[in-house]
Amino acid sequence: MEPYVEAWRCLHQHPGVAALLAGLLGTLFGSFANVLIYRIPHRLREEWKADAAAILDLPAKEIARDDTLTRPSACPQCQHRLAWWELVPVLSWILLRGQCSACHTAISRQYPVIEALVGLVFAAATWRFGLTWATPAVCLLSLLLVTAAVIDLKTQILPDTLTLKALWLGLGISVFGIHLSPQDAILGASAGYFSLWLPFWAYKLLRGIEGMGYGDFKLMAALGAWVGPAGILPILIIASLLSVVGGIVHLRRTKQSLRTAFSFGPALTTAGLVVLLWGPL
Ligand SMILES: [Zn+2]
Question: What is the SS3 assignment for 99?
Answer without folding.
Answer: strand
